[in-house]
Design a protein that fits this description.
Blueprint: E1 10-11, E2 14-20, E3 26-33, E4 39-45, H1 59-69, E5 77-83, E6 86-92, E7 98-99, H2 100-104, H3 112-130, E8 144-146, E9 152-155, H4 160-164, H5 179-182, H6 189-205, H7 219-228, H8 234-238, H9 242-251, H10 263-280, H11 300-305
Antiparallel strand pairs: 1-2, 2-3, 3-4, 4-6, 5-6, 7-8, 8-9
């Protein structure tokens, strides 16, 4: 693939030190300011993708909005401009750690609890970003950086869909695109929820949906499978509990209206699934630390109280508490019916040393993430 720059090139006050190979429609370069003090990761559209990027985008204003989030799990935006006819953005260089895609080359996450905790951390970040009006739209394992303990460090490329356009369907990571994106619709919050379901499936199965070590579908076949078929149940691959399987497939529902309506609903269900798994599966390991609720300030006293030992599973179901806005009622699902997800549901249910939120009792969450009782 033709690259815009080679090692040693100088551009906009930066010098290219290393080329980062990428196959998701962007070019990435490790650069350093010519004063030698600032190291950054420079992103720009691939040469053959220049006609796909959005028109009339105020790149500097968008970068200021990104910088205003000030989230430790997002890379700092150093500079963003349009130069020589193409947009580019320079971000904080990745800290120590590795890409989730690199970690997955060694196989699946053997600890189901660790996989659930990591996905919750990414979802918490995307929930905070959504509160600032951002949809990721391009999330895939290559953009998630983790540390040696498989905990989240950074998520890259938030807001890049607005700057560089959607991920091309020719990219290998197209399996993370929701069906509506494959049909040309813009990304939404529920598109990102779909992608997180796909990523969790890969963490637990050890390979992407519709893929195995022996078989990787062609682009056309993969798109057709995503639009028309469901991947094999995780229970068939490694004996995943049915309630975990059902949660993943709720997130990966083909129709937007059949998925969890908000990040709050997604995370409440995920944390309840994690709590049940740690209760019911012997030898599942230590309690993982899940991300705090993005909608509530941290309360140190409550953090101390809300440990796994203090879970109260006897409280009644109070209905879906997550804010679903003014969403219309979901249409009848076209996809094959899946049994309701069995989830614990008390506002007092928490997991780990940080506050968590769970709202649903066993068997009360249906395909749409709504209370079925």
């Amino acid at each position: 693939m033709a690259m815009r720059f080679v090692k040693g090139d100088k551009f906009a006050g930066y010098k290219v030190e290393r080329i980062h190979l990428s196959d998701d429609g962007l070019e990435r370069y490790e650069v350093r300011r010519e004063d030698g003090l600032t190291r950054a990761l420079l992103h720009c559209p691939a040469v053959d993708e220049r006609d796909r990027r959005p028109r009339n985008v105020d790149i500097e204003a968008l970068a200021l909005r990104l910088a205003a989030i000030e989230d430790s799990e997002l890379p700092a935006v150093l500079e963003a401009r349009q130069t020589d006819g193409f947009p580019w953005i320079a971000c904080e260089y990745p800290p120590k750690g590795r890409k989730l895609s690199t970690a997955l080359q060694g196989g699946r996450f053997e600890s189901i609890a660790e996989a659930l905790a990591l996905v919750d951390s990414v979802a918490a970040l995307l929930e905070r970003a959504s509160q600032r009006g951002f949809v990721h739209g391009r999330i895939h394992p290559g953009l998630v950086w983790i540390d040696s303990h498989k905990r989240l460090v950074k998520v890259y490329d938030l807001g890049f869909s607005d700057i560089f356009g959607p991920m091309p369907l020719s990219c290998p990571q197209r399996y993370c695109l929701a069906p509506e994106q494959l049909k040309g619709a813009p990304a939404s919050g529920r598109s990102d929820i779909y992608a997180m379901g796909v990523i969790l499936y890969e963490l637990l199965a050890g390979h992407p949906i519709f893929t195995s070590e022996e078989n990787a579908p062609s682009r056309e076949k993969m798109i057709d499978l995503i639009l028309t078929r469901e991947p094999p149940a995780l229970a068939q691959i490694r004996g995943i509990p049915a309630y975990v399987d059902d949660f993943v497939f709720n997130a990966m529902a083909k129709r937007e209206d059949d998925r969890f309506p908000t990040w709050g609903a997604f995370r409440s269900a995920l944390q309840a699934v994690a709590a049940r798994y740690l209760r019911e599966e012997p030898g599942s390991g230590p309690v993982p630390v899940l991300a705090p609720d993005s909608s509530e300030p941290s309360d140190p006293d409550r953090v101390q109280r809300d440990t796994l030992e203090s879970l109260d599973l006897s409280a009644g179901c109070s209905g879906l508490v997550a804010d679903a806005g003014d969403l219309p009622p979901p249409s009848p699902p076209e996809a094959p019916h899946r049994e309701p997800v069995e989830l614990p549901c008390s506002p007092q249910e928490r997991l780990g040393p940080r506050p968590l939120v769970g709202h649903h009792r066993v068997g009360c969450l249906d395909n749409q993430g709504a209370c079925a009782r």
